[in-house]
Amino acid sequence: MIVVSYDFSNDKTRAKFAKFLTKFGRKLQYSVYEVRNSQRVLQCILKEVELVYKKQFTNADSILIFRACEGCKKKVRRYGYAANEEKEVVIFE
Hints:
It is a single chain. By secondary structure, this protein is of the alpha+beta class. The protein is 37% helix and 23% strand. It has 4 helices and 4 strands. A 4-stranded antiparallel beta sheet has the order 2-3-1-4, with helices on one face. A hairpin with a 2-residue loop joins strand 2 and strand 3. Its cofactor is Mg(2+). Pfam families: CRISPR_Cas2. Its EC number is 3.1.-.-.
């Protein structure tokens, strides 16, 4: 599991980065995404940050990327809506 948290002072940059992250994962909170855990995805995100966003940073901007191992992922506690996202759903019509 990879968790990406970000904060940009520029609304346009923030929206662009959020749209970029939706390609790889789902939104957990306003500026927090859970991203598929793969080396390829991680490298793609890091490359995008380095090539596009890093040069736009101000002292008020930040991106944090947390990578959790499979053992750590099992320790995550989910409550409310987040708890249901991990369950498989079967729909009968």
